[in-house]
């Protein structure tokens, strides 16, 4: 008998001598690192394959890790398909920001994070458990884990391509502005000099006439 972690406690994984409690093949995409701009919507996919039995059910959790020592359970889809929210990501507090959807007959789960913020930057871990009935009891048979990293680029960050384009455009207009000021200054000085010359000539002509 092998013990597996399930729903806050340990559930037995009953196996015969010929069976092996294999791990699920879980992958997360995109990855291993994906960049988003602040305010964008992030879409992560958790792919599951190599289930022990086709009729077994899956429980999917998404965990946020701001650092290797800090993990926070965000959202979970139970084996019956209901979605539960945890901690600061409760249904009432972040109702519009987090969504977990099942796709492709339960072999892929789509996780949506809306309106990314700087505090959303970190590692996102998809933890999956395969659950089936054994002697009329729900039993965890296998599990798997995969992760990806989200980096949120601030709109004011020099690493943001949009920021670079805006900076280059602003630099161009700034140079153009300096050039225009220079041309205008030269023009004004030329007009003043021309006016001064005309004035001097008129004064000389008056003196000669007198």
From TrEMBL:
Bilayer-crossing regions: 176-200
PROSITE patterns: IG_LIKE
SUPFAM superfamilies the UniProt entry points to: Immunoglobulin
Keywords annotated in UniProt: Cell membrane, Disulfide bond, Glycoprotein, Immunoglobulin domain, Membrane, Secreted, Signal, Transmembrane, Transmembrane helix
Pfam families noted in UniProt: V-set
Principal location class: membrane
Entry's localization field: Cell membrane; Secreted
Location of the Ig-like domain: 12-154
Topology term for the membrane: Single-pass type I membrane protein
Entry GO terms, CC: extracellular region; plasma membrane
Task performed by this protein: Peptide Lv enhances L-type voltage-gated calcium channel (L-VGCC) currents in retinal photoreceptors.
Name of the protein in its database record: V-set and transmembrane domain-containing protein 4
Lineage: Eukaryota, Metazoa, Chordata, Craniata, Vertebrata
């Amino acid at each position: 008998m092998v013990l597996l972690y399930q729903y806050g406690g340990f559930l037995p994984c009953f196996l015969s001598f010929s069976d092996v409690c294999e791990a699920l093949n879980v992958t997360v995409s995109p990855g291993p690192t994906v960049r988003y701009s602040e305010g964008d919507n992030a879409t992560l996919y958790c792919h599951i394959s190599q289930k022990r039995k086709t009729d077994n059910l899956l429980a999917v959790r998404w965990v946020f890790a701001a650092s290797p020592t800090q993990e926070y359970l965000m959202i979970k889809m139970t084996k019956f398909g209901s979605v539960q929210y945890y901690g600061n990501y409760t249904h009432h507090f972040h109702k519009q920001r987090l969504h977990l959807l099942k796709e492709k007959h339960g072999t892929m789960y789509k996780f949506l994070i809306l309106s990314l913020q700087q505090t959303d930057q970190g590692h996102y871990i998809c933890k999956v458990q395969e659950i089936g009935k054994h002697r009329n009891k729900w039993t965890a048979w296998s599990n798997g884990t995969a992760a990806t990293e989200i980096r949120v680029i601030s709109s004011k960050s020099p690493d943001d391509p949009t920021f670079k384009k805006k900076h280059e455009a602003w630099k161009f207009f700034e140079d153009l502005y300096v050039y225009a000021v220079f041309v205008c200054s030269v023009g004004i000085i030329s007009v003043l000099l021309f006016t001064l010359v005309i004035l001097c000539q008129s004064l000389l002509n008056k003196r000669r006439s007198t």
